[in-house]
Amino acid sequence: MRGRMYRAKEGKQPGGRALYGYHLAEGNHIVNEEEAKVVQMVFGFLTNEEMTLRGIQKKLNGMGIPTRNGTTFWQHSVLHRMVRDRAYTGEWYYNKTTSKPPKSKDNSLSQKTKPKEMWVPAPIPAIISHETFDSAQRQLARNAELCDRNIQRQYLLSGLIKCGKCGYSYNARTMRDTIYYTCNSKLGHVNAVSCKSPGIRGDIIEPLVCDSVKKLLSQPKLIIEQMEARASGIGGSDYLQESLKTVGQNLRKRICRLTSCWRLTPLVRSTQSY
User: Fold this and answer.
1) Which of 115, 143, 158, 163 could cross-link to 172 by cystine, CB 3.0-4.6 Å?
2) Can you give the pLDDT at residue 152?
């Protein structure tokens, strides 16, 4: 670890893959001209043409521009990380993240950011200017505002249902006055191959979930017993406290959705004592 820190303080990347847009030569970041053009194109679509990330994703996939892995399908998450990464302005840091327990179905590790005082700065060649990066962040904020403003109705379970086949979330849409929940993978945003899972009618799944939530809220001891059983296997009391906090936050969000969509005032009153 000391050797890695020493190399990082010299401005070199100690190991791993270089950020998209660069390649490594003896630990030094060298601009990859072809990839750098794609990075500049993405920021240009965002700042100059005021496109959304979904629109940029569709544009790149339609142009057939290859990713670093050689495929021609760009993931929305990859583009999101790209336009949020200040390293493209020349500010790269080592020791910025660490692994945290997996949450996905495949048990793959995810990353969390360390406190900033632990980061080791290592300047690298810039691909975009600070002004372009800041402009991109402002456009992302505007896109988020416009997205919220354009929602014509709130759906009770949008983003909360997970597909049993591919693991992606279900989103909702209304067709001929009927709500349908459909796997996000079917829209071509998250995978080159569309998921085959069928859609679910809202008038069938929403009452089932509502009844389940009401039954769960009427048995708070059951929630605590389940969390204690999980905590005894992994993480101990710290895991229990963190999980209970997460459960509480999620329940509050869902109760807000229930009250805004269905105006279930008695349900809210019944939960206030918990």
Assistant:
1) 158
2) 56
